[in-house]
Amino acid sequence: MELPKLFSTLLIIEALFISQIQGPAAPNSNLFREYIGAEFKNVKFTDVPINPNVKFLFILSFAIDYDPSGNPSPTNGKFDIFWDSNNLSPSLVSSIKNAHPNVKVALSLGGDTVRGVPASFSPSPVDSWVSNAVSSLTRIIKLYQLDGIDIDYEHFKADPNTFAECIGKLITTLKRNKIISFASIAPFDNDQVQKQYLALWRKDGHQIDYVNFQFYAYDKGTTVPQFLNYFKTQSSNYNGGKVLVSFSTDASSGGLKPENGFFTACGKLKSQKQLHGDFFGQLMTPRLMVSAMKRKLSEFCQVASSIIIKLFSE
After folding, report:
1. For the whole model, what pTM was predicted?
2. CA-to-CA distance for 221 and 201, rounded, in angstroms?
3. Where do the structural domains in the chain lie, given as residue ranges?
4. Distance (Å, rounded) from C-alpha 75 to C-alpha 183?
5. What residue stretch is flagged as signal peptide (predicted)?
6. Which residues have a catalytic role annotated?
7. What's the number of CA atoms in the CB half-sphere (13 Å) around residue 119?
8. Are 211 and 243 in contact (CB under 8 A)?
9. CA separation for the pair 110, 108 (Å, rounded)
């Protein structure tokens, strides 16, 4: 699978802010989430430093309902893995979880392209797609001992109501069957994408645990006031959701950068009591990372996690 256009970053850190409508404060907690496995660049679980004092979530990227051979074509909900299974095998998932009790592992569905072909959401019909998806994903999740799923479709050959019906039924069924314990979605500020995910949110938002919003897809040079306004807008769109905000260190990406006031914005959100005591952070591995870069990744993760935890423990 090619590098998804909105994840083509060197490193991304995401923080989860719970908006005021969430109600009473919950106990403080920290969660780091990392996408791993795309592009088959030999990135291993053990390449990433894991702080024992936080909840750490790896997200395997991706599971696709496409046949990648020849001219890639949709398989109508029959998912298979499309990540680096040599370095991210079932036994290695088990090993990292046994070594670190604070680690959970999920998988992400969709992504951008399959060998240059858009990985479009193409159900036909709804019940058939859902049945195939539940069956195939249950098999993968049990084999890999996974804990949750992330929805990252970026292209669609179905209307928003169909997307909402399919994904809503999928998440609800997997949770009811106790196959997964959480689910997240990964929208960004694009009219077509937002129509799909907002339809899903209106129908089954209560089943979605995290809104992994891609704030780094906004224009370069985003300022603190703009960032806060974007956060307010998306918190309103995904009313009641646990909305993730993000920045990227990649020079080609957009959004609010640390050097331009990302942590200042975080402080403002906290001072406005929009955190309610909860903070979750996410670290995403660079999907084009090579071995020579792993030391820098490790060092950056350690520094970034220290800064984030300090900021939100005050």
Report:
1. 0.82
2. 29
3. 12-313
4. 22
5. 1-23
6. 154
7. 28
8. yes
9. 7
Pairing of strands 120-121, 12-18: unpaired
From CA 112, how far away is CA 104, in angstroms rounded?
Answer: 24
Q: What is the pLDDT along the chain (314 residues), one digit of tens a residue?
A: 333 333 333 344 455 544 433 433 344 446 677 788 776 667 888 888 888 888 888 999 899 999 988 888 999 999 999 998 999 999 999 999 999 999 999 999 998 888 888 999 999 999 999 999 999 999 999 999 999 999 999 999 999 999 999 999 999 999 999 999 999 999 999 999 999 999 999 999 999 999 988 888 899 999 999 999 999 999 999 999 988 777 765 677 899 988 899 888 888 887 886 653 333 334 443 333 333 334 445 555 555 555 555 544 55
- Residue 103 β-bridge partners: 56
Distances (CA, A) of 311 to 208, 238, 264, 265, 281: 27, 25, 10, 11, 11
Helix (H) or strand (E) holding 98: helix 90-99
Q: Tell me the backbone φ, ψ of residue 40, rounded to 5 degrees.
A: 50, 55
What is the Cα–Cα distance from 114 to 71, expressed in whole angstroms?
A: 9
Pairing of strands 80-81, 31-36: unpaired
Do the beta carbons of residue 181 and residue 210 sit within 8 Å? no
Check residue 3 and report its DSSP letter. P
Residues 6+ away with beta carbon under 8 Å from 156: 120, 121, 163, 192, 196
State which H helix or E strand residue 244 sits in.
Answer: strand 242-248
Both tokens assigned to 13: 């850190």
Domain 12-313 belongs to what architecture? Answer: Alpha-Beta Barrel (3.20)
Residue type, 77: G
Q: Are 2 and 41 in contact (CB under 8 A)?
A: no
DSSP state letter for 205: G
The rounded distance, in Å, linking the Cα atoms of 4 and 96 is 26
CB 17 within 8 A of CB 31: no
What is the H or E stretch that residue 33 is in?
strand 31-36
Helix (H, G, I), strand (E, B) or coil at 109: strand
Q: Are 183 and 148 in contact (CB under 8 A)?
A: yes
